[in-house]
């Protein structure tokens, strides 16, 4: 008869946390890839003021949730679910996804940092408000992507950069998708892309292609493309592209290089009127006295003939 294994004492409180951290460290220094893959993602998140357990998913409820993460997310999915949720991530989003789910959600995160996979923020269905610090990707397998998805979304980000990979996938991209979206971004450069999607979108960028190139593509609908607050957006000097797409589009843009491209803009800013060249005031010539015109002599009165 096999010996009875000793009863395991359940640890609680600080002792349990210490044991968990010890196990995580052991897995990190283990020699086999299988043991390293078994590491449990660590994060510090709360769902409606209740601490979320360690793991690769932080989930909201079917109602209106407040999800708050005060640490980096690495290999973690944050899912708001149904309801009008507020999701805040104070740390980096590393190889992770933050998704609002159904409802009019508010999502605020720091930088998207793809290291071994992609980092993503999605509003999903609803009129969402999304704010992301920076969006920097590199290739198809290391994408940094912000999706508004369905609804009239308002997306604000810092700089957008990073070339896509094969089939134009990945890289650094901000897209409104369906709905009349408002996209306000920083500098779009190093092959970063900003896409309006369908319907009438408003796209504002701080700069486009100042160093290596970037793309703004408004898509179908009567779109507006400009700099911040409707100011003139400078395109270039390095391979910046504005493609307003189908619709009657208004582009408050100017090109500073032959390497840039601006297309499908029906309404462009009118050129500033040229100021007349300053000329020296003319020196007045002295007036030449005109010769006096002789007046015709007055006719003498006729003399009456003497009486006979």
TrEMBL record:
Domain of life: Bacteria
Pfam families referenced in this protein's UniProt entry, alphabetically: HemolysinCabind (PF00353)
Region feature (Disordered): 266-308
GO molecular function: calcium ion binding
Keyword Chaperone carried by entry: no
Signal peptide: 1-30
Keyword line: Signal
Residue ranges with Pro residues bias: 283-308
Stated name of the protein: Uncharacterized protein
């Amino acid at each position: 008869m096999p010996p009875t294994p000793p009863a395991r004492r359940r640890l609680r409180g600080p002792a349990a946390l210490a044991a968990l951290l010890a196990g995580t460290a052991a897995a990190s220094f283990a020699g086999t890839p299988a043991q390293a893959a078994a590491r449990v993602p660590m994060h510090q998140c709360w769902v409606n003021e209740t601490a979320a357990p360690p793991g690769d998913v932080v989930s909201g409820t079917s109602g209106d949730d407040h999800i708050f993460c005060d640490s980096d997310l690495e290999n973690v999915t944050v899912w708001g679910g149904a309801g009008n949720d507020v999701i805040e991530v104070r740390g980096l989003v590393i190889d992770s996804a933050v998704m609002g789910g159904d409802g009019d959600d508010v999502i605020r995160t720091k930088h998207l940092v793809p290291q071994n996979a992609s980092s993503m923020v999605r509003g999903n269905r609803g009129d969402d408000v999304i704010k992301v610090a920076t969006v920097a990707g590199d290739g198809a397998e290391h994408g940094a992507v912000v999706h508004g998805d369905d609804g009239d979304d308002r997306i604000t980000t810092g700089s957008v950069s990073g070339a896509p990979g094969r089939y134009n996938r990945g890289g650094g991209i901000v897209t409104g998708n369906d709905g009349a979206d408002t996209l306000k971004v920083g500098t779009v450069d190093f092959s970063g892309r900003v896409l309006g999607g369908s319907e009438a979108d408003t796209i504002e960028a701080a700069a486009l292609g100042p160093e290596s190139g970037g793309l703004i593509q408004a898509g179908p609908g009567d779109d507006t493309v400009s700099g911040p607050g409707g100011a003139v957006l400078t395109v270039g000097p390095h391979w910046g592209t504005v493609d307003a797409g189908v619709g009657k589009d208004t582009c408050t843009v100017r090109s500073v290089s032959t390497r840039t491209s601006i297309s499908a803009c029906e309404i462009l800013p009118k050129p500033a009127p040229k100021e007349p060249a300053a000329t020296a005031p003319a020196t007045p010539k002295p007036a030449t006295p005109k010769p006096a015109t002789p007046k015709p002599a007055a006719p003498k009165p006729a003399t009456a003939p003497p009486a006979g």
